[in-house]
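Saturday, quiet lab. Running sequence design on the structure tokens for the scaffold JK sent over.
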């Protein structure tokens, strides 16, 4: 008598949590099932939002794709440590592009009250959080509002990026994976992130722990296009180890 579907699902999820990935072929062999039935299980788990399917298997789904209100409560201590390091990189008189999202909002909260600089953003949330900073010039990029992430996206927003340039861009993503790279859950949002990165001398990724080893559907940028990854994940984390091995600069906010 084989395993019931519910037991297989439970097994796959526990393996995903333990190993950070599931390879359909290996699981099929281990459980004495066809690869097709393992793939069907993974499809069902993905449909329920419990994993992200990739070629040959599945990866953990990033908790960072939950709606904005929920994401504020995900890993706040981790985001605070990363934000403190990012904020220390913003020099007086410089221009910095801030992506939307809860990680960059933490950067805003970490900026010194008396800092004099320019912040460019496509996030109304970020822009309004900067109203209390008397010396920060805020430049808000317009376009269609993508409500899930509270940012502007689409053709008009991408076009608006052509008028700006900055020293730094702090990029938020939902997944950072040594094989699948830097990813996010929406194609338009990924395109906007690329457009912003193209306008900055250096792009740094804000990588709170829940994003490390996770993957979403749309690729944002290759690792070669970023100046570094700011994270507080331990150096022994397998993804961080692999990124270091690949020569990706990792800035330790721990």
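Result came back. Writing it out in full:
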């Amino acid at each position: 008598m084989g395993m019931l579907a519910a037991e297989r699902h439970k097994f796959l999820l526990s393996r995903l949590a333990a190993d950070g990935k599931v390879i359909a072929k290996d699981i099929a062999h281990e459980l004495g099932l066809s690869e097709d039935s393992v793939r069907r299980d993974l499809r069902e788990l993905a449909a329920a939002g419990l994993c992200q399917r990739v070629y040959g298997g599945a990866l953990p789904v990033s908790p960072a794709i939950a709606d904005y209100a929920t994401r504020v409560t995900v890993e706040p201590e981790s985001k605070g440590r990363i934000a403190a390091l990012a904020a220390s990189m913003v020099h007086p008189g410089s221009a910095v592009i801030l992506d939307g999202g809860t990680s960059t909002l933490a950067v805003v909260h970490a900026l010194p009250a008396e800092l004099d600089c320019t912040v460019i953003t496509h996030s109304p949330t970020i822009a309004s959080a900067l109203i209390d900073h008397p010396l920060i010039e805020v430049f808000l990029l317009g376009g269609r509002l993508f409500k899930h992430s509270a940012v502007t996206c689409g053709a008009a927003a991408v076009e608006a990026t052509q008028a700006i340039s900055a020293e730094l861009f702090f990029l938020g993503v939902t997944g950072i994976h040594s094989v699948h790279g830097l990813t996010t859950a929406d194609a338009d949002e990924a395109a906007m992130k690329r457009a912003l990165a193209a306008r900055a001398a250096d792009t740094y990724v804000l990588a709170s722990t829940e994003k490390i080893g996770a993957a979403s559907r749309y690729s944002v940028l290759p690792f070669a296009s970023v100046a570094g990854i700011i994270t507080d994940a331990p150096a022994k984390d397998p993804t961080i180890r692999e990124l270091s091995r690949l020569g990706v600069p990792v800035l330790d906010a721990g």
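Notes for JK: DSSP finds ten helices and 15 strands in the chain. The mean pLDDT is 90. Ask whether to fix the surface positions before the next round.
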